[in-house]
Specification:
Elements lengths: L3 E5 L9 H10 L1 E7 L6 H6 L2 E5 L1 E2 L7 E2 L1 H14 L7 E4 L6 H11 L6 H8 L1 H9 L8 E3 L2 H6 L1 H12 L3 E5 L9 E3 L2 H13 L6 E5 L3 E11 L2 E10 L3 H5 L4 E5 L3 H17 L5 E10 L5 E7 L7 H9 L3 H10 L15 E6 L4 E6 L8 E5 L6 E2 L9 E6 L3 H10 L6 E4 L7
Parallel strand pairs: 1-2, 1-6, 2-3
Antiparallel strand pairs: 4-5, 7-10, 8-9, 8-10, 11-12, 11-14, 12-13, 13-16, 14-15, 16-20, 17-19, 17-21, 18-20
Helix pairs in contact: 4-5, 5-6, 8-9
GO molecular function: ATP binding; ligase activity; metal ion binding
Protein name: ATP-grasp domain-containing protein
InterPro entries: ATP-dep_AA_Ligase, ATP-grasp, ATP_grasp_subdomain_1
Amino acid sequence: MIKTIVFLTPHYLNFASEIALQTLGRDYRTVLIAYHADVLPAVLERNVAKVARVDADPHRNIRPLLDEAQCHAIVSDELRAVGGDTSAVRIFCQEECHVQLAAQLRGVFGLEGDTQAIVANFRDKVLMKHAVSRHGIRVPGFVPLDQSRLAKEPQAYYRELAERLGLPLVLKPVNAAGSFEVSIIGNEAEFTRAREQVMASPFHFDYEVDEFIDGAMFQCDSFVVDGEIRYCGVLELGCTNFDFVQGKPLSVIPVADPVLKATLEAFNRDVIAALNFRNGSTHHEVFVDRRRGYPVFLEIAARVPGGIGVPYHEKNSDINLIDANLYLVAGAAALEQIRPREKNNVVSALLPLRKGRISQLNEPPIASAYSIDWKVAPGMVVDSRSLADTAGILTFCNDDPTVLRADFDALQHYVPTQVETLEPLSA
């Protein structure tokens, strides 16, 4: 019988409903492991039995990574409190940078849940492409980045990569998130700039180099129970994560074409089956090749979507994916109350930042009634490095699919903030 649930980091858990947290709090001891500097939302402060603060390393990923030894000690204490019964403790984590640590802790203590072998194929972009391509699933051409050659013979290495993969090239970390340190490389000068970024990075990433796929981008956000996909939200994206970091709104709209939707759902099922994923959520990004018309795998994560994802699916499909995963991990009867109902009348957008000082906030050029949850204000100095850097979240609904689509298209030219470039400090 489950007695204790350990939440690894408050990130993404903050999307849980108070009802779900209270439901678990009544039946189980809930323990949240958080970084000393994390500011917790009131909903977590109110509804978690214990908050355990630990140190973290800020130089290994876009969010500080919790100290493994301290997390180990906390889980060990909780396991000791239930008499060493490994069936009584669960670890819950839906934050990209910590799913691997959660799997490591489960392995050390023999706890139920995603194993390191399963998570590795969702965390490392090179491993995941090898894993799905073995099942005949289309992937971009790719190679791990040879950082020794990058440092010692950049010109020859650039020519070799360009000949093998074509131009543009896509260079990115194999296990970061949110398009952090991603470069699109169209010529040798851009390769040189990307090389400088890699060599100066404090994050010690491994990188890969991918073929560039020219196509529209989609995502399939799934909830899986015993290998069965109980929900799959299929969305079209207005741009890529990389485009967002460059200043374009990252907007999502439900896929309306039934043939395209069925094609993407089938492709998503094949990828999840290829990776032997049995329980939880996946966030799967797919290109549809513009010239050939077929899906091409980009990447997949063993977690809920980030950014606007969880609130979006709750508005559009009446499913809170964090609640669903909490009930699943706990084996709670409330899981049977999760009944998605797609309305397909909602558009959301993560609004980008541009580097500089904000002078003005701009309203979107759309016909639908909308709301914006602004995260910035005039006078603030901002930068854009990943999906974590955002000006705000725009949401609108419209039961007229033609107007909904027209407003979605209009967002592609929307600039949410006016920014003054800062003058560099003189030496």
